[in-house]
Amino acid sequence: MSNLQPRPVLGEPARYTFPKPQRVKAGGGTVVAIDIPGQPYVAVRLVQTAGGAGEPLEHMGVATLVNEVLEDGFDGNSSLAPALERYGAEWVSRIGWDSFITGVDAPANRIKDAVSLFAAAVRTPALRTEDVVRRRDQLVERFWLEASVASTLAARTIGGQLFTGRYATPLSGGPVHQQELTPETVRRFHADNIASVAGTLVVVGDLTGVDLEEIGRTVFGDAAPAPQRRTVAPEGAPGELPRVVVLDRPGSVQSAIVLAHRAPARAEVDLPKVEGMSDVLGGMFTSRLNMELRERLGYTYGVGCRFDLRRDSGVFVISTQVEAPTTAHSVTATLEQIRKLQDEGVTESELNAVRESNTVGMPVSYATAGRLAGALVESVVHDLPEDHVDRLRAGFDRLTADDLRDSAREYLHPQEAVVIVAGDAESLRGPLEETGVGPVTVRDPETLWT
Amino acid sequence: MQELVTTNGAAGRITQYKLDNGLRLIVAPAATGQVAAVNLWYGVGSRHEVPGRTGFAHLFEHLMFQGSGNAAKGDHFDAIERLGGDINASTSSDRTNYYETVPDHALDLALWLEADRLATLRDGMSQEVLDNQRDVVKNERRQRYDNVPYGTAFERILAHAYPEGHPYHHPTIGSMADLDAADLEYVLSFHEAHYGPDNLVLTVVSNLDPDDVHERVQRYFGGIPARTVTAVAPDAVLEGPLGGPKSEVVKENVPAPAVFLIYRVAPYGTREFDIMQLASAVLGQGQGSRMYRRLVVERGLANDDGGSSADLVNFRYTPGLFFVSMIAREGVGGEELETAMLDEIATLAEGVTEEELERARAVLERDHLQAISTPGGLADALGSCTQLFDDPELVYTWPERWADITTDDIVEHAKRLLTPENRLSLRFEAEAEAETAEPAEA
């Protein structure tokens, strides 16, 4: 038989300090950079504030379309990506409710060339009519392709169930609003919000020989500093809560379930308390929801929860996909886990898991250029102090079991939730009504955004 | 061609060890500090499964997290998550991979957990956990195959591209019936047959001293005996073309028609594979590729958000697949799209420009270098090159494989391989619109 060692006892972890970023002013913008010697791919991200939340209601989805059409480049006709590919670089873009992110990942020794192409694409893109129309029409069709996946369908339904105003419609504007966007609207949005606004440039990688000020000047040009942002809390959607909405997918062998309710804005919460509590409920493999629905009941491949915290409000979401006949019980078992957490709080072991994973685990969290860049982008989007990562660690270090129990009581609101189920309505309606969670309505997915 | 990225002098800093029990250890430096990426490649995959036992290698991967002689169910995940670690596993036809990236003070714990389930998994196994994970895997199958549009495409492609009884005829997930039939006795025998240190490549990427890492691995794994009998993989040899033209039309509830065109090519690691990988990049990788330029931008026939319509399936021990797929735009029929794709594929045999080849090389090199730019990604690539090719240094020299391939090489291979005799066509049509489509045949 084998000769095995006893389980090792861990020593003290080395103390981790988030790298202090360099800050370089260039024209109307700021470059924020972290040097990682030996990291040959540099992540470059331009952070601007023109996300979906600030779009005028008559032009919902325009930020998404502009973000997409920038990839046609300075010369138009989808010319940017092939040009970047010659430098071994790759275009990166992401539109959020509070942010408009563009960038490149480029080899350190080709960063100057790649950034020149990038800057021309963002500041002076062709925005040709035929490119805008092509990208727009593809976005509309892709919306339905993606919504044919049950989990995506359920997730995209959340906004309309919880909010009125901009958040009631998906970030891309949904198929109807997106289809109405014109090339002129795109050009105007770009001129007002992207071309003329400097923003903040995040640069992470091996910066040996990289002139940050020169890169900043290339990207910012003569664009003006970003204007002050205003936030106005959105209104909720009408209707009785809690309630169940079934999105009919006849014959589905699984149901995609989302339980969602509104939450405060990011700036209004003590993040370690909220995220720590969310970790216990559904943020890790060993979280309560996953241990119950997957590891004990075998209903699902996985379940999780998270807070999506924006500048003016937030959403709490639990999501999973379960075998169809277990749908109703999955909903009540989920609600039971919330109730238990609120009533009984967390165990000492759970508290320690949350504290340790968010403190000891920091070298892993920031082990790649992309993740470091992500932390810097987040700090720009939410106006966080330079040492916000270290402050977060201190917050997790201070957490107590009472904090997490109180957080569960303060921030989890099953009585104000909407349960969205994408699945076979005919077989699900009865069992879902029998749960007594709330009134059950059935919707045809094709009518959701038309 | 100019080198895109210098490799940070990392080549030559790989250290290799072999324990007396056959375990191969690869140690390499990390680009960021204070972490240890631990990666295990076991030389067992779904190719080792026999008829009636499909899906077993993958189900077994799940069971490896369900407790062993000295770790309770869930303990492995719990211990690593507490450290903020990245942890998971995956199974393919050719191998089973387990990994965790942890703060480097926890390297010993990660090694101990891995050693314990290698040595004593059979002591922790029970009917209860088997039943639970069988249900979980069946839900994974529903989520990835049965409840998503086009989800069964790959399963259908394998069934057509590899003959009945061939070890690559079925997908890693297996069938519901075979999952139902899995029994505890077979679980135990599977572990005994395939899970030995002599079938394992263990990679550690960190900034710790290689000899120190070796000493720790020796401590935890050195006492585990090698397998007494080495499992033999079923014969996967296949000669000649795919036996086409084959075609299948599937009528399902899909949002738009989709077309998959498949050709048989030589196994991963051969020069033919490398040439066809460049051909696939010319044809369908990136927005500078032919399929994107012609069918997405110019003709508006296909919906594609970034240009990823062609690639290779990289089986190591049997011929791989040249794989082209697209989804039709509104108002475009599946047959129309298929004809347009075939026309575009045919252009490869007519010629490739130097500029196209340069772009293709740059795309492949970029993807490779990005993949190994993280500690976990580097560890995985080292494990792969060692388990499949017995040479970890290949990780750093891989792009050189494409350096001397010429446009003539691509044209010659396209003429020989992208032919009707070597082709499988799989088309999905929306149920209501498929009335006039031809019946399925294979």
TrEMBL record, chain A:
Gene3D superfamilies: Metalloenzyme, LuxS/M16 peptidase-like (3.30.830.10). SUPFAM superfamilies: LuxS/MPP-like metallohydrolase (SSF63411). GO terms for molecular function: metal ion binding. It comes from the Bacteria. Transmembrane segments: none annotated. InterPro entries: Metalloenz_LuxS/M16, MPP/UQCRC_Complex, Peptidase_M16_C. Residues 181-356 form the Peptidase M16 C-terminal domain. PANTHER family: METALLOPROTEASE (PTHR11851), PROCESSING PROTEASE (PTHR11851:SF224). This is Putative Zn-dependent peptidase.
UniProtKB/TrEMBL annotation, chain B:
Residues 31-163 form the Peptidase M16 N-terminal domain. It comes from the Bacteria. PANTHER family: METALLOPROTEASE (PTHR11851), MITOCHONDRIAL-PROCESSING PEPTIDASE SUBUNIT ALPHA (PTHR11851:SF49). Belongs to the peptidase M16 family. Gene3D superfamilies: Metalloenzyme, LuxS/M16 peptidase-like. Transmembrane segments: none annotated. GO terms for molecular function: metal ion binding. This is Putative Zn-dependent peptidase. Residues 183-363 form the Peptidase M16 C-terminal domain. It holds the Pfam family Peptidase_M16_C.
